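in:
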């Protein structure tokens, strides 16, 4: 059954409010949210969701934002994956994206959804194929099943929100959270202006600065260290890479979190202390454990 007119209008309104909240988040500096002890006691950091409803619900329960009024929550990569509609096989991950927008509206200063490559793919119609299936097409089929003739209108409402999402969250003492890191920074550099300057269409497109940031899979030590030095980071916390155990440590700089499987990793870090990579790894928990 197609969603009611009232539900459709509310969804569109929610994304407009969430986009405004993104741009007005305390600590927002350019395309980065900088969280200091004055703004947050601690931060719960999570990995890729890819439509995993159970893990999203567990994240909300674990974060307990209502009970921890100075806790912040970092989320990423909602689109593509998870359950499908039985009627047409369309992807239901759009519902997780919509619930993240609702969560941002409910906690506008404390929920931060950083941009990932699958959201970027929806923004730019960049095709993603996995297991011989076009994920973008399945996503639109899901919207069609839920919203019928209003599907394109609802999808258009997503875009200002996605374009307003921060590219990074920075904690004190050099902990920086991005979806991924660019490739071959040690060999060809990277324009860190994407973090500070207003973004233009070219930044979103194939091989633009944002594209490089969210699509990179170069886990060499030299690359990670070059990027960390470029952005003044001691530890980079990322998603993007599947991790069967819920997290990965590919080099001495990065910690990768993954929340799209049964073993889903997260970490809660206080903002009043210095964290090493080893400290962060030792603090990682499992959703539902």
């Amino acid at each position: 059954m197609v969603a009611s007119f009232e539900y459709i209008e509310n969804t569109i309104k929610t994304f407009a409010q969430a986009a405004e909240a993104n741009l007005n988040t305390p600590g927002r500096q350019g395309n980065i949210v900088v969280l200091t002890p004055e703004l947050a006691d601690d931060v719960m950091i999570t990995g890729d969701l890819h439509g995993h409803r159970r893990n999203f619900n567990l994240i909300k329960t674990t974060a307990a934002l209502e009970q921890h009024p100075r806790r912040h929550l970092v989320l990423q990569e909602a689109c593509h994956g998870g359950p499908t509609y039985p009627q047409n096989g369309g992807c239901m991950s759009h519902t997780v994206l919509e619930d993240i927008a609702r969560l941002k509206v409910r906690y506008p200063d404390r929920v931060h959804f950083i941009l990932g490559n699958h959201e970027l793919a929806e923004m730019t119609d960049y095709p993603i194929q996995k297991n011989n299936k076009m994920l973008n097409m399945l996503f639109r089929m899901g919207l069609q099943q839920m919203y019928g003739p209003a599907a394109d209108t609802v999808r258009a409402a997503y875009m200002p929100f996605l374009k307003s999402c921060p590219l990074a969250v920075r904690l004190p003492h050099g902990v920086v959270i991005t979806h991924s890191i660019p490739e071959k920074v040690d060999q060809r550099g990277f324009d860190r202006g994407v973090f500070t300057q207003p973004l233009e269409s070219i930044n979103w497109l194939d091989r633009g600065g944002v594209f490089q940031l969210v699509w990179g899979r170069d886990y060499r030590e030299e690359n990670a260290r070059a990027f960390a030095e470029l952005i003044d980071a001691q530890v980079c916390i990322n998603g993007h890479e599947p991790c069967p155990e819920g997290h990965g440590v590919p080099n001495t700089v990065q910690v990768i979190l993954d929340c799209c499987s049964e073993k889903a990793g997260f970490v809660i870090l206080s903002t009043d202390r210095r964290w090493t990579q080893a400290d962060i790894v030792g603090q990682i928990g499992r959703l539902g454990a």
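note: The two ends are 36 Å apart (CA to CA).
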